[in-house]
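Key result, reporting period 2: structure in, sequence out.
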């Protein structure tokens, strides 16, 4: 029998008037539980459904706050879509939730924001969880593009993939077509997933159910993220400044943010645990859910609780 998780859904107004769609998982009217804020990836595409499915299992111990970032999902499509603005939104939500310190989790693009947040507001963090991310924007973009256009698992429009990974999409339809043609590369190869330990449960895959959510494809958000933000994103030489205990997880068969990027982050942050998921692609919480839960819970018990 699946335990019912008490969820509060809110519309929270930021300091500039932009409204964000927010969920808090776990009943705690007096806010006595520690707070965990989990960030989704793929600006303009992904939504809070991704971190909700990944971290809902913690709601008995933590208040798990997930939200659609501005420019994504059901939140306002109002910029600026910059790391600085997205960081300010996290700060506003932290204060709204009444927490002085919290755990910050970020997957894929959410990991970029988490790293930048840690360099600006490191004193606010009890811990960090990074999933399948990188520390250098230009190299990351070019690696992902190269892996996409050379993959024997895909048949893509190369010019369109150049547009999505460099942030010069024509429109929302161009964004949709660019995503749909590369979906298989986010999952591990079939011969690998067939060998994975069976968990007896079904988890959503990367971007699964996107059309059903009505969130749509917002190319303006994606273009800002990859044309403006990524060329300026390079925290490799500042990783040593991050003092919060950090868990880095990555799928062995992730071709968007390959293992060596996570290894670089783990080598740079002083207090880090790196966990490689041998049967996973870009989304270990979906590919190996039991191991992901065990790994995260072990880290939080040792470093935060």
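The corresponding designed sequence is given below.
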């Amino acid at each position: 029998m699946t335990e019912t998780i008490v969820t509060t859904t809110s519309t929270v107004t930021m300091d500039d008037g932009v409204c964000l769609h927010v969920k808090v998982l776990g009943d705690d009217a007096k806010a006595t539980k520690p707070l965990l804020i989990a960030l989704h990836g793929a600006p303009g595409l992904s939504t809070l459904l991704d971190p909700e499915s990944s971290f809902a299992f913690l709601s008995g111990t933590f208040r798990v706050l997930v939200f659609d970032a501005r420019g994504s999902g059901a939140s306002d499509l109002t910029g600026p879509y910059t790391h600085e603005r997205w960081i300010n939104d996290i700060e506003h939500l932290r204060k709204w939730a009444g927490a002085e310190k919290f755990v910050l989790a970020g997957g894929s693009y959410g990991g970029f924001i988490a790293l930048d947040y840690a360099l600006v507001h490191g004193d606010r963090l009890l811990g960090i969880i990074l999933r399948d991310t990188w520390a250098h924007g230009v190299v990351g973009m070019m690696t992902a593009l190269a892996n996409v256009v050379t993959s024997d698992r895909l048949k893509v429009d190369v010019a369109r993939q150049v547009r999505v990974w460099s942030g010069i999409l024509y429109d929302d339809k161009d964004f949709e077509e660019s995503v749909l043609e590369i979906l298989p590369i986010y999952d591990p190869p079939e011969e690998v997933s067939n060998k994975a330990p069976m968990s007896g449960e079904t988890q959503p895959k990367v971007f699964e159910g996107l059309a059903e959510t009505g969130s749509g494809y917002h190319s303006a958000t994606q273009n800002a993220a990859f044309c403006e933000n990524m060329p300026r994103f390079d925290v490799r030489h500042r990783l040593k400044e991050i003092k919060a205990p950090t868990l880095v997880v990555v799928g062995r068969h992730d071709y968007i943010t390959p293992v060596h990027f996570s290894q670089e982050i783990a080598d740079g942050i002083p207090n880090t645990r790196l966990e490689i998921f041998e049967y996973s692609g870009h989304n270990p919480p979906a590919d190996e859910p039991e191991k992901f839960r065990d790994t995260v819970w072990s880290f939080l018990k040792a470093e935060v609780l």
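The radius of gyration is 18 Å. Residues 7-303 form a domain with the Rossmann fold fold (CATH 3.40.50.1820). This case is discussed further under Risks and Mitigation.
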